[in-house]
Amino acid sequence: MEVSTQIILSFLGILGIGGIITAFLNKYKEIEFQKMEQKQKRYKSVLLYMDVYFKPKNIKYLSSRQPDIDSAEDVIEYLKAEYHEMMLYASKEVILSVKLFIESPNRKNFFSAVLAMRKDLWIRKSDLNINDIEVGSVDL
Question: Which residues of the chain have a pLDDT value below 50?
Fold first, then answer.
């Protein structure tokens, strides 16, 4: 009788620790998902500002979010604000590529930032390069 009680108590102890570990892992996964979701939203916003910088007619897509944006200079200022916030969550590669775009907004730097964000969000390795994603007729 004593042996079976010890076995049962041991088994229940293992289940209790297993439950705690499972709860901890689930909470960790939930937090990681929320962080990734927020990062994705912020990166989309940054890309929208970059796009409007090159194509001012697309400013209409920002009007519901930022009604005080009237020019490419305003767009760069908002982009700088996003850049300052991204220092809290973005990878080093994303931070540096967006900084380079702000300092020298051109097609190559735009696509470099896109690839850095893609790598940070999803794939963790480089599977594309600028020539792969660049569209010949895009006017950036």
Answer: 138, 140
